[in-house]
Task: structure prediction
Amino acid sequence: MTQEFNIVIEKGEDGYLISEVIELPGCHTQAKTFDELIKRTKEAISLYLKSQQKPVEILTKFVGIQKVSV
Result:
């Protein structure tokens, strides 16, 4: 069964790309290129799901991202 997850991608001070999976707390990774980041993110999600004792139930629905100025 295929599941979809939302990720946030940021660029760190060292130039690495960092992804965080919104629906899976603590599930994140980094890489130098976008393609490698997506590959590693999929691996991180698979490992996260395999490590859980029971199926992961997604309780939140990602709405979006908004930039604000203060």
